[in-house]
Amino acid sequence: MDPLSLLALTAVTIGVLAYAVYGAVRKGVRDGLKDDRERLRAEEHADQNGEMK
Questions:
Q1: How far is 22 from 18, CA to CA, in rounded Å?
Q2: Integer Cα distance of 53 and 45 in angstroms
Q3: What whole-number distance in Å separates Cα of residue 14 and Cα of residue 6?
Q4: Are the C-beta atoms of residues 46 and 53 closer than 8 Å to each other?
Q5: Which residues cross the membrane (predicted)?
Q6: Residues 4-19: tens digit of each pLDDT
Q7: What is the maximal distance between C-alpha atoms in the chain?
């Protein structure tokens, strides 16, 4: 395999891996924010009902 093809293949591989990591991190952050919102809503609901945490 000539050096230019190897370089192109390496660049494509790095791009695909970077995109996969980006997607996984983005999903993790989104799920984490969703969990935080749900927890805050539950706490607010408990506060409104006069319940102890």
A1: 6
A2: 11
A3: 12
A4: yes
A5: 6-25
A6: 999 999 999 999 999 9
A7: 72
Cα–Cα distance between 22 and 20 in angstroms, integer? Answer: 5
Look up residue 35 and give its DSSP letter: H
Q: What is the pLDDT of residue 52?
A: 56
CA pair distance 45, 37, nearest whole angstrom: 12
Tokens 């809503």 found at = 41
Q: Which two tokens stand for residue 1?
A: 């395999």
Is the distance from CB of 29 to CB of 39 less than 8 angstroms? no
Q: Please tell me the pTM assigned to this model.
A: 0.62
Find the DSSP H helices in the chain. 3-48
